[in-house]
Amino acid sequence: xxxxxxxxxxxxxxxxxxxxxxxxxxxxxxxxxxxxxxxxxxxxxxxxxxxxxxxxxxxxxxxxxxxxxxxxxxxxxxxxxxxxxxxxxxxxxxxxxxxxxxxxxxxxxxxxxxxxxxxxxxxxxxxxxxxxxxxxxxxxxxxxxxxxxxxxxxxxxxxxxxxxxxxxxxxxxxxxxxxxxxxxxxxxxxxxxxxxxxxxxxxxxxxxxxxxxxxxxxxxxxxxxxxxxxxxxxxxxxxxxxxxxxxxxxxxxxxxxxxxxxxxxxxxxxxxxxxxxxxxxxxxxxxxxxxxxxxxxxxxxxxxxxxxxxxxxxxxxxxxxxxxxxxxxxxxxxxxxxxxxxxxxxxxxxxxxxxxxxxxxxxxxxxxxxxxxxxxxxxxxxxxxxxxxxxxxxxxxxxxxxxxxxxxxxxxxxxxxxxxxxxxxxxxxxxxxxxxxxxxxxxxxxxxxxxxxxxxxxxxxxxxxxxxxxxxxxxxxxxxxxxxxxxxxxxxxxxxxxxxxxxxxxxxxxxxxxxxxxxxxxxxxxxxxxxxxxxxxxxxxxxxxxxxxxxxxxxxxxxxxxxxxxxxx
Length: 569
Hints:
Blueprint: E1 2-5, H1 8-15, H2 26-30, E2 36-47, E3 50-59, E4 69-78, E5 81-84, E6 88-92, E7 101-103, E8 109-118, E9 127-136, E10 139-142, E11 146-150, E12 152-153, E13 175-185, H3 195-198, H4 201-212, E14 218-227, H5 234-258, E15 268-273, H6 277-285, H7 292-301, H8 305-314, H9 316-330, E16 332-342, H10 346-355, H11 362-371, H12 375-389, H13 392-404, H14 408-421, H15 425-437, H16 441-450, H17 455-468, H18 471-478, H19 484-492, H20 496-504, H21 512-525, H22 528-541, H23 545-551, H24 562-568
Parallel strand pairs: 2-12, 6-7, 14-15
Antiparallel strand pairs: 1-2, 2-3, 3-8, 4-5, 4-6, 4-9, 9-10, 9-11, 13-16, 14-16
Helix pairs in contact: 10-11, 11-12, 12-13, 13-14, 13-15, 14-15, 15-16, 16-17, 17-18, 18-19, 19-20, 19-21, 20-21, 21-22, 22-24
């Protein structure tokens, strides 16, 4: 903040006093040097889309004539234009017919003034003047203006449009998981695999699985869990369940051998449960047995297997139902086979793109588009995928490619189609990028907010925050992104050092814009070496930046610095 005392002419303008002895204003002019003022900030600063003007001043005691009235109007002068801000009125305590803030003769008074104007190109070279009209006893007079601030810092206009569209990813994997399950039931107290069990639908499906995968599947694990029902002697059940597992393995091994597959014994994982009380409890709970609650109560009351079994057998009629409906299903082995099927190779997929694209799955098409060498081929593959599968990802990526080529209307059409299929954060973010690029900031802001699940949308929201003048919010939204705009946000938020680090880590590190922003960061931190060296590099890449730097108020305090002058002159 700069403060200074008015010279007589300054106070004359700032307070709008009419210089005539008979109206009592002469003394005010004579003592004008007693008035203080401040313009904050000075130079002015552009933030968001506007320039905030704040002026404060103080009239000393026994200064403001009791019958005087003053109207002060700040005027921003730039590019041959004059833009008047709102006026501020003051009056002496006896100026009954006048409007304005009363300034007491005995004690004086202070004032604060604030106004905001829309930024216009050329305001970086503006000067702020105070023009005033004073009146007393029916007389008035206009006075020439006096400059109270010079220039406007407009660094936020360096903001780039680097809004990030998002490409939807494929879910293609080099291998596809292939899994299947089945059960074999056993007769009471036996471990032999009955042929009729192998003819059941689930086992026939397992055998087909083995046959179909005999030429391509890579087997990862074959799990066999064998069980005995909880009735019977525990030691016998232990051997019984173990043998059921071994015999199940033998049946599977025979099927693998039949299909000319030699399976590594290590792939088989066998486990056995001698008395399957947990399975028994689950089966009872899901059944409609009349005495279900009583059975479950017995299980909760007794933990000893023998006592449990005896108590259940004591309920003779109930136990007959258990023996018929529940226990036979517990005498089983459960099979789970896990395998992987290798996907088509990259070469095979790309060959089919040309020769027979309809034979490719949606995932293969999406993957193929990612491998394509140019955007035209990518677009053609995505278009085929969208036509065949109505896949939102393909439509989204068509929009993505059109955004990159600045075909915004075509991109919007693609994305609106994708939105009808699935209205998600990725699509909303890309529609937001289009809205921003077309200048519809309000729509873009809403879309980025709705797409908060998309990381790019969060970054893009940061761009709008810079545009709105919310630099702290922009820094937060952009997170650890290393981009020009992220560096700009940090600079505007007051951290020149962080801005330098971010731009140096960005792809704009050695561009004219990047060098220029680093020069501004050097100026703000008072590091002449950083400022001059980066400004030299910026001008070397873009000679027009020399004239920009001459007018840029970021460098105003260095105008007499020899090193700075050598770069811009």
